[in-house]
Amino acid sequence: MSDSDRTIVHLMRHGEVHNPAGVLYGRLPDYHLSDLGRQMAERGAEFFADADVTHLVASPLERAQETMEPIAKTLGLSVMTDPRVIEAGNQFEGKTFGVGDGSLRHPSVWWRLRNPARPSWGEPYTQIAARMLEAMADARDAARGHEAVIVSHQLPVWVARLTVERRRYLHDPRKRECSLASVTSVTYDGDVPVAVAYNEPAGDLIPAKLRKKFVGGA
After folding, report:
1. What angle do CA 118, 121, 125 make, to 5 degrees?
2. Distance, CA of 59 to CA of 67 (rounded, Å)
3. pTM (predicted TM-score)
4. Does residue 218 sit within a domain?
5. CATH, residue 90
6. Which of 53, 129, 159, 202 could form a disulfide with 181 if both were Cys (CB 3.0 to 4.6 A apart)?
7. DSSP state of 146
8. Do 59 and 85 touch, CB atoms closer than 8 A?
């Protein structure tokens, strides 16, 4: 594979969000990075500082835009906002999610969990995959022969990876390899994805309790 045929699209998850109420914030506005999240974003800028990045894309949500800010500043590039890489739709948005004191204590919502393979409580995995792969293809074309960075969210990044690796969508959310401010890198030979790599530039900043906690709206 020659350098002119090799393009890398990096899918970065945003940093930690200030969310004292512990709700599934999903696509809700005004959820910004915490102080720790901003440190994570700076780690992202350090990670890409010497990379051959020529194209930047971010979800329209504040936490993604704020994660991209130091990267854009470091690289001296403008950022394209792409709604196709936004967080997945979720019917539990704005609510806490748990059995003891969250939404799951109400039997009236249990029907939403009837089909985890779709999933029945939110945007279908197939729909997430379609929009993410379209956005990745456009980023690949814009950065042809170089590298692009897309700042998105946990579930869209994970579904994109499952699709590229031809794995099934049904999975345990607690086992997603997509930590805060992580980078999932897809290498293309021409238009064909040929490799996936995973890095955690801010891995040492993530508290143990966050590593163990599944956050559905991230």
Report:
1. 35
2. 10
3. 0.88
4. no
5. 3.40.50.1240
6. 202
7. S
8. yes
Is residue 25 situated within a structural domain? yes
Strands lying side by side in the sheet with 183-189: 79-81, 53-58, 147-152, 6-13, 183-189, 192-199
More confident residue, 56 or 217: 56
**How many folded domains does the chain comprise?**
1
Are the C-beta atoms of residues 41 and 71 closer than 8 Å to each other? yes
Which residues lie across from 197 on neighbouring strands?
185
Say if 136 falls within a structural domain.
Answer: yes
Distance CA 83, CA 132 (A): 10
Return the residue matching tokens 């039997």.
Answer: 107
How confident is the model over 21-77, as pLDDT tens digits? 888 898 999 999 999 999 999 999 999 999 999 999 999 999 999 999 999 999 999
CA distances from 165 to 60, 72, 146, 150, 168 (A): 26, 29, 22, 18, 9
Give the domain range for residue 151. 3-212
Decide: 184 and 211 in contact? Cβ < 8 Å. no
